[in-house]
Write a structure and sequence with these properties.
Largest sheet: 9 strands, antiparallel
Number of domains: 3
Number of strands: 16
Distance between the termini: 64 Å
CATH architecture of the largest domain: Sandwich
CATH topology of the largest domain: Jelly Rolls
Order of helices and strands: HEEEEEEEEEEEEEEHEEHHH
Shape: elongated
Radius of gyration: 37 Å
CATH class of the largest domain: Mainly Beta
Helix content: 25-40%
Length: about 350
């Protein structure tokens, strides 16, 4: 009976563990600072390099002089592929910033691997290394039109992959947000979803809610780009040949993982047009596989549920009430049976005596 009870609890525990491991995303790394004052303790998570320094509760990364540059990066590295079996890591970043009116280089969100010379600056755009062949990913918030990199204007956001020539770019003026170097505070959200392999950038004025529509969306498979590399993330800035000030007022960052079966390929509209017929075949097979998977999962859950019901029924059915021998009801029953037995003996004896007398 004890074995059956233990089996029942183990089965319930197994079901709950399987359920939560399957559907829940797991938070891996997280930090956030509403400001960078003395009480924020940001130095436990973030390191400053170059000209970056705390000014009035914010971090001024550049602008104290011409060709000023600075960075702020997290201290603890992370990977975009984790665990066994392998799980792809997504991340989200939110920050508030301002750029003064000069036409400097602006700044960039950056991802760099271990081995990147954090405290080395050589005059490259956004405070990144220009002449060295160092792999990086950057989302540039550019307020200088540099023709050698094919910039569309002096007010754009672009995605850079180990080069200052953006693979995708968006004119901020086209979405009626004004100039990024107006001196006013703005905020940005940068999200990478490993399931769709897509990097999304959103931008708005301070006080507005997070926009539903993206300013810029770019399909990138970061698991292929970085593989097993350990990475640092943060912001990097350069004033260029100006005294443009770049200030960061708040910053939050977190990573999360999802089950491997939730991952899919990036949905690139251009690729969809080029491979329309191929995707039709794939979509039918994928649909069939998903239906089969759902049926198998439902069958498995049903079998586990039935097994659990059988175990519970067996345990409860085997628990019949047993009264102890010294229980009053039992003793009364025994006394009645004994009295009837004595009466039977007396009757038999009397009958035998009568028989002898008659003979």
């Amino acid at each position: 009976m004890g074995t059956l009870s233990a089996s029942r609890y183990l089965m319930v525990l197994f079901i709950f563990c399987f359920y939560f491991r399957t559907i829940q995303s797991e938070e891996k790394m997280s930090f956030g600072f509403g400001d960078f004052g003395k009480d924020s303790n940001f130095e436990s998570q973030i390191a400053l390099y170059g000209d970056a320094k705390v000014v009035n509760g914010g971090i001024q990364m550049s602008g104290s002089m011409g060709f000023s540059a600075g960075r702020m990066l997290n201290k603890k590295p992370f990977k975009l592929i984790e665990g066994n079996p392998r799980k792809m890591v997504s991340f989200s970043l939110h920050f508030v910033f301002s750029l003064s009116r000069e036409n400097g280089d602006g700044f960039a969100f950056v991802m760099v691997p271990i081995g990147y010379p954090f405290d080395v600056f050589d005059g490259g755009s956004f405070g990144l290394l220009g002449d060295r062949k160092m792999k990086f990913l950057a989302v540039e918030f550019d307020t200088f039109m540099d023709e050698k990199y094919g910039d569309v204007n002096e007010n754009h956001v672009g995605v850079d992959l180990s080069s200052f020539i953006s693979v995708k770019v968006r004119n901020v003026s086209s979405v009626k947000l004004g100039l990024m170097n107006s001196g006013e505070k703005m905020q940005s959200w940068i999200d990478y979803e490993a399931s769709s392999k897509r990097l999304e950038i959103r931008l708005s004025k301070l006080g507005d809610i997070k926009p539903v529509d993206t300013l810029l969306s770019c399909p990138i498979d970061m698991s292929q780009m970085w593989k097993e590399d350990e990475l640092f993330v943060g912001l990097s800035s350069s004033s260029g040949n100006s005294t443009q000030k770049c200030n960061i007022y708040s910053l939050s960052f977190n990573t999360r993982t999802a089950p491997h079966w939730m991952h899919s390929e990036p949905l690139d509209p251009q690729a969809f047009v080029e491979k329309k017929e191929e995707m039709k075949v794939h979509s039918r097979s994928d649909c069939a596989l998903r239906i089969l998977g759902a049926l198998l999962f439902g069958t498995g859950c049903g079998a586990l549920g039935a097994l659990l019901v059988v175990i519970v029924w067996t345990v409860l059915g085997s628990r019949r009430p047993v009264a102890p021998e010294d229980h009053p009801a039992v003793m009364e029953l025994h006394n009645k049976e004994f009295d009837e037995y004595k009466k039977f003996i007396v009757v038999v004896d009397k009958a035998m005596e009568d028989g002898k007398v008659k003979n």
